[in-house]
Structure formats: C-alpha cells, structure tokens
Amino acid sequence: MDSWIKRSDGSTVWSNRLGNTSSPVTWTTATRPSVPFNGQTGTNTDFNGLETYNSDTSKWRIMNGTWTFATRPATTDIDIGSKGSNSDMNQDETWNGSNWIS
After folding, report:
1. How many Å apart are CA 14 and CA 81, to the nearest integer?
2. pLDDT tens digits, residue range 21-31?
C-alpha cells in the first residue's frame, strides 16, 4: 500500500509499494496537514515556497516564497523569520512577528 513516511530529517515523503519516494510533498495553505508534526516540510503552491512546521509556536515558517502585496501569506499562521520575495517591490522581505521587513 502507498503511504506517507516520516524521514529522519523531519520531512514527509510519499512512498510507494516499491519503496521509491518523492520529496517534498506539496499542498496549499488550505490543504496543509491538519495535524502536522514538528519539522514537517513541504512546498506550498499558493506562494511557491518551502515551509516547515514549528510545533513550539504552532506556526509554519516559510523558507522561501514569492508573492505580491495582494498574495502575501496570512500572518496569523506563519512563524517569525518567514521570508520570501515580493515581486511588487522587487525585494525580499521577512516577517518579524509584527511587520514585513524589507
């Protein structure tokens, strides 16, 4: 049976019956894992960025991403230090817990 497996590096991959895996998994903000584990990592296709779950804060840290002012990730569910590139500004920005800093 095909299934999800957790690797030692904390990421989750899809494994088929033959043991082949593909990584990372993808999701949207709406379809993120409902019960993520610490270190769970995948690509969020809403902003084309890799993100990792931090169980200490119950938030997702975006490692990289691309967005505009209108499509920035919701700040209610992202961790301090989340970062990406804002194409409206043509600059990188990082979430500090209160504001986006360029």
Report:
1. 28
2. 555 688 999 99
